[in-house]
Fold:
Amino acid sequence: MNTFISTLMKKMTIDEKIGQLNLVTGGMAITGSVTNNGIDDNIKKGNIGGIFGLYGTANVRKAQDEAVKNTRLHIPMIFGLDVIHGHRTIFPIPLGMSTTWDLGLIEQAAHIAAKEATAEGLNWVFSPMVDIARDARWGRISEGSGEDPWLGGQIAGAMVRGYQGTSMKNADAVMACVKHFALYGAAEAGREYNTVDMSRIKMYQDYLPPYKAALDAGAGSFMSSFNVVDNVPATGNKWLLTDLLRKQWGFKGFVVSDYTAVNEMTNHGMGDLQTVSALALKAGLDMDMVGEGFLSTLKKSLSENKVTVADIDLACRRVLEAKYKLGLFDNPYKSIDPAREQKDVMTDENRKAARITAEHSFVLLKNANQILPLKKSGGSIAVIGPLADNKRDMLGTWVIAGEWEKSVSVLEGIKHVAGNNVQVNYSKGSNITDDTTFMKRLNFGPGMVGLDAKAPADMIDEAVKTAANSDIIVAVVGESQSMSGESSSRSDISIPESQRNLLKALAKTGKPVVIVLFNGRPLTLNWENENAAAILDVWAPGTEAGNAIAEVLFGNYNPAGKLTTTFPRSVGQIPIYYNHLNTGRPYSNGPTKFKSNYLDVSNDPLYPFGYGLSYSKFTYSNVKLSKTNLKGNETLTATVTVTNTGSYAGEEVVQLYISDPVASVSRAVKELKGFKKINLQVGEKKDVTFNITPQQLKFYNSQLKYDWEPGEFVIQVGTNSAETKTAKVQWMR
Structure:
């Protein structure tokens, strides 16, 4: 590769080298106010290194032909897209995928996405998003894996392996792009594109690990984030992109900016376009997305000695190396196969995988008196809500190529699974929202959210009549697809008032209400938790949404999902997360003054990290340790016996947490260090054992040294972060 790239670069002019650093949008996927013009002419001039937002073999072949046939050096382009949770076949949103706690399913989903994406000419995906997020107001919490750095790292690695396969030269492999580097999920006030400010120790301990895990899994590219890091925008931050990413971590791939992020450094107060473009290049940014600052200013900066030929060469080499690793110099058309486009996209096999993954992602938040699963033996069900007979919102956010028309609605799925013995009655009941100002903000695309022709009161009356003629109510409510995702921050994270009014009217009927909840983030659900008989959180399940939901509602699959984000009781508790530090005046139950608590609400969340019910019941024995005194690199085994004492076979995610009560810096009250997902038949018991070494005891101290310190440790094993069995151990050097 080095010889090939060096030989090629000797032939390249400075304009051609700068051209390789220019990434433009083909216009099919716009996430900003700027688009690119004159793309065909710029390709012929060698001014474009890659295109994103263009897919389909005919479209990609036409563009690639221009690059390899009509340019002086015939350098192929790279083609990217926001393939976030599936390409054509849509899987659950990433936050929902994380609640499966199933790395095999997550890797498989990424592989299927890669197979479909490459079948339509793509070879680069802007995924995984590995930002740790602890603020549910932030819309992009839906796009990540939650609040825990260790679990986030496990999922990041699985996704990279799924996308890139055994070799990026394979016809069904894409290059992963890890985003957003770095710390983007900690935006202040949960407001999109906002400032991030934190200590280095917090960065290293809580926010950086998933990026490093993705790198260790072999990710070929990284994307810089919009936010500042230590008051310097990430896109032009040399400490971040060079000192940390390349020198400390050893990253060998290339870094692309986010959408116009180079240009936006001007708004951060870093200078004009020429200044910030030079700053970004010298910081270690290799490719400029959409803004064309590199294309329009770097040659001038070179003449003014603000950048060097070596700076440009280094970035160009990294981009060319990525194309080499993808096999594009051997075959620029390797992913452009019309036959694959017909046979590898939206197959029955892919849809089945999406359905199974969706079933595994659902989290049962409440199930009073075992109201679920529903019975197929007879009776009637009222299926009510604006998301019940709805295909578009099944897919969730970030579905560039997803075809919502091919998704399965909840109503369709229930009718499929319920059988002929159950009467299914339907009523819409309410709009997603009655607030027309809010609605305009949601409708960044045509027809995303609308108002029914009927008045809201009439819709509720109709729904109440439908409920009165049914035995049980399934209320399908929550967020539409445009209520979460990029640029979808919310200061109020409750269910919209229009739907809450519907739920209150349904509750007054006296019929049991089962809520099927669509959401791209944790919501405040106090009223729902108190008044609904059951709540099944389905996130946004994807193409096979309705079938997956019905399979779970009727007990064909016993839900086993566990939360990867903490659900607050009130938005005023945010940020809220399980692995927080203690204080000098720790919270205690009750209205105690002069403690670290609120006057009006408990510190405790409504649903803690790791929480999720089952149709069955699992009991845990006490933790058994192989030793209570260890030294050096010995291995400790911690074992619990888990028994299925319920009436259904089911899966349980057994979670391992470790606490370090005394250290040189304040440590989190507990940290997730492992999990095992087991399947138990009725009455069956299994011993679940975790092997613990000093590696799991390590943390970053005030000198940012990653090490462990001798002393007492608390080993905790349980069904969620708030319900664990504990045992203590002394571990010396």
